[in-house]
Amino acid sequence: MVSPVAEDGTQCRKALAGKWGAVRIKAWWKDGDLRPPEGARFVLAVKYKDTVAKPATFHIFSGLGKNFGYWNIHQFGGAADGKWKTAGIPCLGTWSRGWSAAWTRLAIRRR
Q1: What are the pLDDT tens digits along the chain (111 aa)?
Q2: How far is the CA of 103 from the CAs of 16, 21, 36, 95, in angstroms?
Q3: Fewer Cβ neighbours under 10 Å: the N or C end of the chain?
Q4: Domain range summary for the chain, segments of one domain joined by +
Q5: Paired strand residues for 59
């Protein structure tokens, strides 16, 4: 992803075609824990401008699998209608903190 920009009055980062775009966010679960409590469920609200012909993929950092621990949990977009939308992305407490104890990572991949 590139630096933040304002588009249509909305602050955003653009995901580039065929690239990973990751952001680092502060972990909100109990300080010192590596991940949310067992069985925890969350819905992440992601606002996006639908400009892609194929759905983009949303990934969380789980410390498992390939791609350095990113795990594909959802697809969104694909209408390419240029409208701002919000995707509700359900996820379980299977993430892990990133390389820092206080942060975790989220990523979007645009095909």
Answers
A1: 567 888 888 888 888 888 888 888 887 777 777 777 778 888 889 999 999 999 999 988 766 555 567 778 899 999 999 999 999 998 776 665 555 567 777 888 887
A2: 24, 16, 12, 11
A3: C
A4: 18-109
A5: 72, 107
DSSP state letters, the chain:
----EEETTEEE-PPPBT-EEEEEEE--S-TT-SSSPTT-EEEEEEEEE---SS-EEEEEE-S-SSGGGEEEEEEE-------EEEEEEEEES-----SSTTEEEEEEEB-
User: Whole-model pTM?
Assistant: 0.77
Question: 67 and 102 in contact (C-beta within 8 Å)?
Answer: no
Tell me how far apart the alpha carbons of residues 99 and 83 are, in angstroms, rounded to a whole number.
Answer: 35
- Cα atoms found within 13 Å of the Cα of residue 16, Cβ hemisphere only: 8
Bridge partners, 46 (sequence order): 87
